[in-house]
Amino acid sequence: MYLCFLIENRSAxxxxxxxxxxxxxxxxxxxxxxxxxxWIQFNHLTAxxxxxxxxxxxLTAxxxxxxxxxxxLTAxxxxxGWINFxxxxxxxxxxxxxxxxxxxxxxxxxxxxxxxxxxxxxxxxNLLRRLNTVWIGLSDGETEGDWKWVDGSExxxxxxxxxEPNSYGDEDCGLYGYWSDPVNNWNDxxxxxxxxxxxxxxx
Length: 203
Prior knowledge:
The protein has 203 residues and is an alpha+beta fold. The chain folds into 2 domains: 1-79; 82-202, Mannose-Binding Protein A, subunit A (Mannose-Binding Protein A, Chain A). It is built from 3 helices and 8 strands, in the order αββαβαβββββ. Strands 1, 2, 3, 4, 5, 6, 7 and 8 form an 8-stranded mixed sheet that branches. Strand 1 (82-85) and strand 2 (88-92) form a beta hairpin. It holds the Pfam family Lectin_C. Residues 85-200 form the C-type lectin domain. Residues 42-76 form a coiled coil. One of its GO terms (molecular function) is carbohydrate binding.
């Protein structure tokens, strides 16, 4: 009877061993499957990363090329005497002309006499003129006292010197910098007088 009991115990132990072996085998299969999936995902992510890196490198090269082109164009533009501010290019003359002659010169350059739309632009022109008195694109030649810019728009914000405009002696054209005030330095002046001028070209 003891022998039968011993045989039964061995049989039960063998079954437990087989079950443990099967369980361990399943765990190995699951682990191998998980490792395989993770490896595939890793390779996929690595490929995406490499593709993104390549795209980034190409975009960086394009950006650098555009920057170089912009720098070259800027240098060429500045060489021609035009200076960039905000969304416009500005040209300062080196000779004297009447208001009409000054405007004609600007038109020949594909621009017009400067139109000042803000305090920032007013301050910029003050630096640009280098203490010279310059014609600007402002006139009341059509209707006395009705000041308009050369594009036909009404004057909204002006930087007149106190007491200006006064229309003294048929003064119908806008002049910048006749007075020493750095901000309020406009006045009206006879259009046939000769001064420097500033052209503006929108970009």
